[in-house]
Design a protein that fits this description.
binds S-adenosyl-L-homocysteine, alpha/beta, SAM-dependent_MTases_sf
């Protein structure tokens, strides 16, 4: 991004940066427009990691039910964040930020009887999410639109629960992203972000080492991700923004079976045919899957959860 700003000395840096961001958004939209169909055929409605018992052998990737593991991920995340499922404090109005084809949105609507709005950059996903939701009889509760999480078309203080499952890693400006999540949250409401991060830097380190940076660059190129951050970046933003009950956790040990399972499914006949039909962007994504396995194994990539409340009274 800095390089892009330097390339045109007549353009203000902020504008150059926004130009880069909108190019990134176009890439993300194209990636999900072209890859969501094959994902849905093989994996179903959830486009996020599953939650597995830690320490399972690799061969379990062939035998466990991965959709159950994905639903378990949603349930365990809600439990960890302490979202009440009964009483007056259970969520009534939820935003699903980066909703994919709406798997979480429908789950949350059913679980809480809540009204849910899902946003995505991909028109294909918004259409598909709407049609699955209608077939499920949930259209009166759940709706979808194409919108940017960093510039949401909603008023201030609108949702009592903000859910962002594996979308934060796509956001180029974490400060703007968090500020927008906070803006749309009602006072007393809660934010839950489940996202890919890089490890914390050690004392004396100023950046990741070149080998680690090279690995992350390959992942970024394949999945349309901007620069990564560590979980503490989210924590410090949450504190700076005056959020309360801020906490985070590292669930890397619960997701290790996921990428091997995705790789096995891509190598199946159905996976291969689907990949070929989806085109180069999706194939590039498939080729980068082994980098994710390496990144998690080496401790470079972390599967992080961050939650916080928006205070009822500004302090
Ligand atoms: N949360 C979903 C999908 C995860 S895939 C699930 O768990 O099933 C990542 C999602 O983030 C995609 O739907 C993508 O369109 C969305 N996304 C990425 N950047 C975004 C942005 N700036 N604004 C809105 N959605 C975004």
């Amino acid at each position: 991004m800095a390089a892009a700003a330097a390339a045109n000395p007549n353009q203000p840096a902020a504008l150059a940066e926004e130009g880069e961001f909108s190019k990134l958004n176009e890439g993300i939209a194209h990636f999900y427009d072209t890859s969501s169909g094959v994902w849905e055929k093989i994996w179903g409605e959830h486009m996020h990691h599953g939650y597995y018992d830690p320490g399972l052998p690799l061969r379990a990737a062939f035998t466990v039910n991965h959709v159950d593991a994905q639903v378990r991920m949603i349930e365990e995340s809600l439990k960890w964040a302490g979202i009440p499922d009964e009483g007056e404090h259970k969520p009534k109005k939820i935003i699903d930020v980066g909703c994919g084809i709406g798997g979480s949105s429908r789950h949350l609507a059913r679980k809480y009887g809540a009204e849910v709005i899902g946003i995505t950059l991909s028109p294909h996903q918004a259409r598909r999410a709407t049609s699955i939701t209608s077939a499920a009889g949930l259209s009166s509760k759940v709706s979808f639109q194409v919108a940017d999480a960093r510039n949401q078309p909603f008023p201030d203080n609108h949702f009592d629960f903000v859910w962002a499952m594996e979308s934060g890693e796509h956001m180029p400006d974490k400060e703007k992203f968090m500020a927008e999540l906070v803006r749309v949250t009602k006072p007393g409401g809660q934010i839950l972000i489940v996202t890919w991060c890089h490890r914390e830097l050690c004392a004396g380190e100023e950046s990741l080492n070149p080998k680690e940076q090279k690995l992350l660059k390959k992942v970024c190129d394949a999945y349309y991700l901007p620069a990564w951050c560590s979980p503490s970046k989210y924590l410090s933003l949450a504190h700076t923004m005056g959020l309360k009950d801020v906490k985070s956790d590292d669930w890397t040990e619960y997701i290790t079976l996921f990428w091997p399972a995705v790789i096995f499914s891509a190598l199946s006949l159905r996976g291969m045919v689907g990949l070929c039909k989806s085109g180069w962007t999706t194939i590039k994504g498939a080729l980068a899957m082994s980098q994710m396995v390496k990144g998690y194994k080496s401790g470079l990539i972390k599967f992080a959860l961050i939650t916080a409340h928006k205070p009822i009274h500004e302090s």
